[in-house]
Amino acid sequence: MTTDPTPSPVTFRTARRDDLARVVELIADDAIAARRTGELGDEHHAAFAAIDADPNNELVVADVGGEVVGVMQLTFVPGISRRGATRLLVEAVRVDSRLRGQGIGRAMMAWAHERGRERGASLAQLTSDKAREDAHRFYRSLGYAQSHEGFKLPL
Amino acid sequence: MTTDPTPSPVTFRTARRDDLARVVELIADDAIAARRTGELGDEHHAAFAAIDADPNNELVVADVGGEVVGVMQLTFVPGISRRGATRLLVEAVRVDSRLRGQGIGRAMMAWAHERGRERGASLAQLTSDKAREDAHRFYRSLGYAQSHEGFKLPL
Q: Where is the N-acetyltransferase domain positioned along the sequence (chains A, B) (predicted)?
């Protein structure tokens, strides 16, 4: 009478420095991102310190049974547009590729939106590489409007 | 023997509180943005204070002959992706509609990129409503890759 084991719940917390190697691994585990993320190095440590020191940035990890299975960065941006709306920017959203399709990404985004509301943001925004069509479907399924073009320029 | 007067040079500075009414006017002077920006109110003052207090946000105005003719918001976002790159986010870029086509927008963006480099950003990014095709042409002409889809969700 055994059934599938109940999956462990996903919990969320701010990333610690000892999560950084795993976070870099998650961010790089992707055909599009691998070439530009690299292996854990000094520049990632410096970036972690900058995020950690900035009250408007939160690097959040998703934990299942003690293992980090996802990561995302939340940035709160005050602005004049839209009647002085604070925006929640969501960047670097990644779920362990072995665990996709289990609702972890959906749980992460729900948590991000709740955190955004808690901090007074009235708009969430994100961009996604034009090649990531699965991600686009996913964001549309969460109610996001695919209303903008995203531009990038190396400085 | 008179010729066209030489146009006054564009100068840039951080917005002051007494620029706010003009900034809101510029942001709202646009068919797409007017309905969602509104008239100057308390919420804009609160947003101005939040931007002013955050070292990673700069509200910048373009001044020609003592008149504010453009505005943009620069946000510096530390991140783990792309080898720990700091990103320069450019939002709410507006030029006085009577003065378009005179290179003011181009001067603003050049200034933004220089400021980004000064602060260690290695990537500039922005999004633009899919309806703003002139803006898309403009950003592509500056070298931006139109590589991403932009998503927004009210919270």
A: 10-155
Name the pTM for this structure.
0.91
Classify B59 as helix, strand or coil: strand
ipTM attached to this prediction: 0.91
Q: Is the pLDDT of residue B3 over 80?
A: no
Q: Give the orientation angle of helix A42-53 with respect to helix A20-28, to 10 degrees.
A: 110
Selecting from A36, A116, A155 the residue whose C-beta is nearest the C-beta of B116 gives A155
Instruction: Write the residue in B113, B139, B155 that is nearest to A117 by C-beta.
Output: B155
Q: How far is A41 from chain B (nearest CA, A)?
A: 8
Domain membership flag for residue A42: yes
CB pairs under 8 A between A and B: 226
- B147: in domain: no
CATH label of the domain that carries residue B31: 3.40.630.30
**Res B1 pLDDT > 60:** no
Q: In terms of CA atoms, which chain B residue is nearest residue A154?
A: B123
User: Which alpha helices (DSSP H) does B11-80 contain, by range?
Assistant: 20-28, 31-37, 42-53
Number of folded domains that form chain B: 1
B108-126: per-residue pLDDT in tens?
999 999 999 999 999 999 9
Residue ranges making up the domain that contains A65: 10-141
